[in-house]
Amino acid sequence: MWIRLAAERVTAEADRLTALDAAIGDGDHGHNLERGFAAAVAALPELPEGMPPGKVLVAAGRAIISKTGGASGPLYGTALRRAGKALGEAGEIDAAGLGAALRAALEGVQELGKAVEGDKTLVDALGPAVAAYESTLTAGGDLAACTRAAADAAREGAEATIPLQARKGRASYLGERSVGHMDPGASSTTLILEALADAV
User: Fold this and answer.
1) Range of the structural domain that residue 65 is part of
2) CA nearest 149: which of 132, 128, 130, 127?
């Protein structure tokens, strides 16, 4: 299941994500997100059996918001909640439905954080990921191909944040000193989307 696998990946990389954040932020991103995803996993057994995937994502997003400090909780929680709401009551998820859910997640994050690609935020990974997913879907790709394309694009997007100067968030206070560091949010977004591709 995607949320469990994402939690495992975030936990395994928590120290690295926190180190990335220490260079240009509060130095708590990895461990904050680890706590949030642990809360999401803990909430799963309490959900009714057979609950639609969309409802599961909404519940996971709610748990992340309640337990994750800083900006991460609202951003990642909103992403999951918007994705879940886009999936609605569907019992099965097809490639088109998941694409719409990922698009809704991106729009939710951008509405909340007011960030665009190039601002050195998680949008630099999520934006290209959604675009790659949609492009692969249009070309006839199945669910596995679409999610893998999204994960690969997210990783490329995260790498591309290294030479950028941050224009949003705490990193933006550093000005030119934010150049040369990967954005921690883009990095964690990549982990989460890679978990999705592997789960599929």
Assistant:
1) 2-199
2) 132
Q: Give the Cα separation of 84 and 93 in Å (integer).
A: 11
Return d(Cα 143, Cα 22) in angstroms, integer: 36
Residues 196 and 188: their CA atoms lie apart, in Å, by 13
Rounded alpha-carbon distances, angstroms, from residue 26 to 53, 171, 189: 33, 9, 18
pLDDT in tens, 104-140: 999 999 999 999 999 999 999 999 999 999 999 999 9
8 A C-beta contact, residue 14 and residue 34: yes
Q: Quote the CA–CA distance of 21 and 199 in Å, as a whole number.
A: 27
pTM of the model: 0.94
Helix (H, G, I), strand (E, B) or coil at 120: coil
Cα–Cα distance, 154 to 164 (Å, whole number): 16
Count structural domains, the chain: 1
CATH of the domain at 186: 1.25.40.340
CB of 90 within 8 A of CB of 53?
yes
Digit-coded pLDDT (tens) for 70-98:
888 999 999 999 999 999 999 999 999 99
